[in-house]
Specification:
homodimer; alpha+beta; Arc Repressor Mutant, subunit A; 2 domains; three-stranded mixed sheet; 5 helices; DNA-binding
DNA sequence: ATACATGCAAATAGTTTGCAAGAAG
DNA sequence: CTTCTTGCAAACTATTTGCATGTAT
């Protein structure tokens, strides 16, 4: 990593992600930034998003299918992914450290980190589904 | 899902995955099957792998970067992914159910499943690294 | 002035799909 | 003979990269 210069585009991308709580995709960021910088390219968005991830200012969430998502919350936490609408919500879990210790007990090798992701149906989809059944 | 016909290719793909304990990628399966069916196409491999996943005979593992991997072990277990060589190892964890209960307590919505993945350096890479340092 | 950042377009990786021909029931 | 499966190639999605130009320091 060489020295970094200021860029208005990067500033705007950082602000967008930090104020967006929907765990946006690169495309969503692109669409958002285009309102301010109509000529910005998707390549620039991708380049800056990975840069911000490297700097630890945002976080990348890989999903099973579909594009990566980005998270302004850099504190340790888990994610819930709705299998119906693909929305992602944060979940706070108390004391998740000991899971690594438990795993380490039956494992040869050095465990450095772990990620837990939950799947299910979000509140909004549950509500929509119950409307459908009533009809 | 309509009725399914027998195919020698599918049979071979199933056998290959069930006897391969390295969590192969679609490409690795393709390469393996080609020894028996030199004309098989990658499309057929992909089609059959997803079919076998749907049938619950094998499991798909999505990774942060790089291709999906396939697992003959359909019993609930976790994975360790080596961030150096990308190898995947199974990890057995006792009682992982209560994590979902814990998560459900602070969450509006229906949690149906969860996946925990561990990251670190596998035994083999640790050994290789220590050789390098000595040199 | 120099080095980093941008926009654009082309390239890449992984996977999916349409279609005509082939095999299974 | 009808339906499912195959091989092939083209399409597609998400992301990365090369390069000439632009901007920050």
């Amino acid at each position: 990593m060489a020295t970094m210069k200021y860029s208005r585009q990067r500033e705007s991308i950082r602000d967008f992600v930090h104020s967006c709580h929907e765990h946006p995709t690169a495309d969503m960021v692109y669409a958002g930034i285009r309102e301010e910088f109509p000529n910005i390219s998707l390549g620039t968005v991708y380049r800056n998003l990975s840069l911000l991830v490297e700097l630890g200012e945002i976080t990348k969430i890989s999903t099973d299918s579909g594009p990566d998502r980005f998270d302004c919350n850099t504190k340790p936490h888990s994610h819930f992914i709705c299998t119906q609408c693909q929305c992602i919500r944060d979940i706070e879990l108390p004391d998740t450290e000991y899971i690594e210790k438990m795993a380490a007990e039956n494992f040869d090798g050095e465990i450095i980190s772990h990620v837990t992701t939950f799947y299910g149906i979000c509140k909004d989809c549950l509500r929509k589904n119950s409307f459908k059944k009533e009809a």
